[in-house]
Amino acid sequence: MYNSGISGGGFALVRLPNNTYEMVDFRERAPGSASENMFVNNKNASQVGGRAIAVPGQLRGLNHILKRYGRLSWQTVIQPAIEVADSGFIFGHDMEWMVNWTLKNAPLLNPAQPNLFVQDPAWQPDFAPNGKLLKRGDIMTRKRYAEALRNISRNGAEDFYTGSTAKTMLRAIKNHGGNMTERDLMGYFVVHRRTRQVQYRNYTLTSTVAPSSGTVLLNILEVLNNYDDFFTNTSTRDLSTHRMVEAIKFGYAYRNSFGDPAFVPNITNLESTMLSQARIQKIYRNIDDNSVHTNVSFYDPDHKWTPESFGTSHMVTADKDGLTFSLTTTTNLPFGSHVMVPETGITSLLPTPLTHSAILLIRTISSNPENALCPLSHQIATRDDGSFVFATGAAGGSHIPTTTLQTLIHALDEHLSPSLSLGRPRLHHQLFPNYIEIPDTYNNATVESLRKRKHEIKKVDEWSYAQAIFRSEQGQFIAAAEPRQLESGAFAV
């Protein structure tokens, strides 16, 4: 609800049983009236309110995926969500934390109503049905949303884009200052994109392309593939960590030049260059085992600040035939733009792609809402014989590529189980700002070795979340969910 919803968008990396791959792009798009200077005089309007809202792709995307790859009916897959919304669910730790974070950190949708969840008449029936904000352990119901899902179940996904559900949504957006039109909703379409692959150790790794960050992750892995003693044992741990961080910094430098292929020219050529052996070997040669490069310009970045999203959810799934999905959806910010449709309870109407200033990154492209690179990165690994072995992905905005990278390293280099791979402490570096984010649980000796190599360290709490599935050579599935999520991570086999 806070990181994902039917008014969101996302990507899916799909492996078919014949070992071919497809990327399904159903991410949100800016409405036709959007422009690169639309938020110059009001930055908060890029995060909350009607002007911030993008054209959602989630329902058309999920409907497309079901028709193309699925076996169940539309009504069958929606029914469990209807039942949960109608009968209720526990208002748990994760929901409580996200509500409190939103009240503390997010701009106010209405300054006269500082507590969105209690004072806004659209939100109050769900979050404060008795006039007081629900607390941990209470049962939360979403009756209006259940009825909206019944309507979408009966009439199909198109009701969200052209039917009564669309009309109520457009009315709510207009009432909050937005100008999305029927044409914007009707004109949304799902895009199929090609994928990219690299060889890493004894595996073939497949990922998504721009406007996702998959190629950035593949670039980092290609560089690290040059090290034969990479995380082979405890004696190589400190040096391997340094090498990994340096490869990440080079990868994030290139990431700043990316954007949507529909609006940013030559992205395909840039991706090819990033994965060329000439570029990989150049990066490899420029990594100094004894020290960082103190001048950040050595990593060859471009310099322009741009915003980043972090309201994301991820799932992976695989079946006995080898059909595998790594799928990420996003609302770009927790609870999206903070606009809820009063008649339907549909929320998470998401901000226009990466135009908000919640988290700062650097990018060379202009601030046009359509020129945005999403941080979403998916990975599916297969053995030499083409059989599926591992799938993973993550949620957490700019931390997604580094989280996915470390999960892969734990699984493929250190041969850890999915649960151990997800449970290991994670670091993060994105070049700007130029320091490593490391949790207190990280190995102290490794942290000191990084300091000796002149890395700047900042101690932080971890807030990225990943999921993973492994399949043994005997065909046994082993799945794991993010252990840092107390209630909102789950797995089933």
From TrEMBL:
Molecular function per GO: glutathione hydrolase activity
InterPro entries on file: GGT_lsub, GGT_peptidase, GGT_ssub_C, Ntn_hydrolases_N
Residues that hold L-glutamate according to the record: R27, T330, T331, N332, G397
Lineage top rank: taxon: Eukaryota
Pfam families to which the protein is assigned, alphabetical: G_glu_transpept
GO BP annotation list: glutathione catabolic process
Active site feature: T312 (nucleophile)
GO cellular component: plasma membrane
Name under which the protein is recorded: Gamma-glutamyltranspeptidase
Upper lineage: Eukaryota, Fungi, Dikarya, Ascomycota, Pezizomycotina
